[in-house]
Design a protein that fits this description.
Elements: H1 8-20, H2 26-37, H3 43-56, E1 59-63, E2 76-80, H4 82-101, H5 104-107
Antiparallel strand pairs: 1-2
Helix pairs in contact: 1-2, 1-3, 2-3
């Protein structure tokens, strides 16, 4: 397996972009993050990670068409690349492999 340089928060943002698919723009990603995690996050934190993931080749973006609902303002939509798909699959597989190697008694904590 090639070394994938992806932090936990970056991985989470990739997963959210995938969940939102063709509606993955910063405001929607923030809303989905808060819905899925129950935690608040600043849109600028999402912007930072989105652009970093795009630089690393995990995401591609394009501008949407303008809509009257947004006063003619266009949205930058983000999409997973094949590299992101490969990385998410490899990370999920590794996590699953490790999880199933944990002996049952290690998970049965008694105070």
């Amino acid at each position: 397996m090639e070394k994938i340089k992806l932090g936990n928060f970056e991985e989470l943002v990739l997963l959210l972009v995938g969940v939102l698919y063709d509606q993955a723009y910063s405001v929607n990603i923030v809303a989905e993050y808060e819905k899925q995690t129950g935690k608040k996050i600043n849109v600028s934190a999402i912007h930072t990670v989105l652009y970093r993931l795009e630089e690393k080749g995990f995401l591609e973006s394009k501008m949407s068409e303008s809509t009257s609902a947004r006063g003619g303002k266009r949205k930058r939509l983000f999409y997973l690349t094949p590299y992101a798909s490969k990385a998410l699959n490899e990370l999920a597989s590794l996590r699953e492999q490790l999880r199933y190697q944990i002996p049952a008694q290690a998970l049965n904590w008694k105070n």
